[in-house]
Design goal:
Number of strands: 12
Shape: elongated
Low-confidence stretches: none
Order of helices and strands: HEHEEEEEEEEEEE
Mean pLDDT: 82
Strand content: 25-35%
Distance between the termini: 101 Å
Number of helices: 2
Helix content: 10-25%
């Protein structure tokens, strides 16, 4: 009767075990890599939605706390440096939008508002643009109006010199309106990160004279269009603010890294000004194309 295994049998057994172990290792590695890649793409898609939701929230504040004399619209194609000089409420030019809003700065209490009585006292709980309670009202009223902007509730005329029965907006030590001009634009002078597809750009945000800050990388296209009673336009036929119903945000962003195979890309619709030219290399990347209409409730 045989006892044990021969050396050849042991070597064959070890070889079979190594082959099986190798197969299991590579199978788990492939599953892990695919899972990691899918998780990364899912996170980046969530990041896209977060960025878009923040853009929508900020763009919806166009005209918040702005007096009627500045509620102007500049035609598309205008040199937007003029916006920062004339302080028009909104202007769009290609891949840039400039607008006025008291809600876009992050300073404490800026953009908070309340209602004054005949003695210039704030008679209500002060609120911000999201209607959340603000602290620190009266803001120096009734004796000091240097840190507030007072608007007549119906006409939105600036009545800061006689802040009685007014909508009061806190501006603090900022220079109104110059410090509240907000700008979103693509940096066309250079490509985005090396992790991004060629010819993508970085979307920047600037407020007043503060240094512009990068908001998101790997942006393939960024457009904003006016919505008027005539539909989606690249321009406004006149400067009457009452003809402006809203704006349409159009953005195309890269999701994930380069892939080994090409994929189709959802291009912009006619309501975003029509399709853009898609570089052939972009088809090796995943893209999220977002189009959303934003009503402008603060200009009425």
């Amino acid at each position: 009767m045989r006892k044990g295994f021969t050396l050849v049998e042991l070597l064959i057994g070890i070889a079979i075990l190594l082959i099986i172990s190798g197969g299991v290792f590579y199978a788990f590695r492939d599953i892990f890599q695919k899972g990691t890649s899918q998780a990364l793409v899912a996170k980046q898609e969530q990041d896209v939605q977060f960025i878009v939701s923040n853009l929508v929230m900020e763009l919806s504040t166009v005209g918040f706390g702005i007096d009627r004399s500045r509620l102007k619209v500049l035609n598309n194609g205008t040199d937007l440096s003029n916006v920062r000089k004339s302080n028009a409420v909104i202007a769009i030019n290609g891949s840039e939008i400039d607008f006025l809003s008291l809600a876009t700065r992050q300073d404490t209490s800026i953009g908070c508002w309340g209602i004054t009585d005949q003695n210039k006292n704030i008679t209500t709980q002060a609120r911000d643009y999201l209607f959340r309670p603000c602290s620190g009202a009266n803001w120096g009223l009734p004796t000091d109006t240097s840190k507030v902007l007072c608007l007549e509730p119906i006409t939105k005329r600036d009545i800061t010199s006689n802040c009685v029965y007014a909508l009061v907006f806190y501006v603090g030590d900022k220079n109104y309106p110059a410090d509240f001009v907000t700008r979103y634009y693509l940096n066309t002078s250079s490509n985005a990160s090396k992790l991004c597809a060629n010819e993508t750009r970085t979307l920047f945000k600037g407020v007043g004279s503060d240094s512009p800050q990068p908001l998101v990388d790997c942006v393939g296209a960024f457009r904003v269009r006016y919505i008027t009673s005539q539909g989606y336009l690249d321009y406004v036929p006149d400067s009457d603010i009452n003809n402006l119903y809203g704006i349409r945000l159009c953005i195309m962003m890269q999701v994930g890294g380069r892939q080994s195979t090409q994929a189709d890309i959802n291009n912009f619709s006619a309501n975003c000004g029509g399709s853009i030219a898609i570089p052939s290399e972009w088809r090796y990347y995943r893209w999220s194309t977002v189009e959303v209409d934003i009503p402008l409730k603060n200009i009425r």
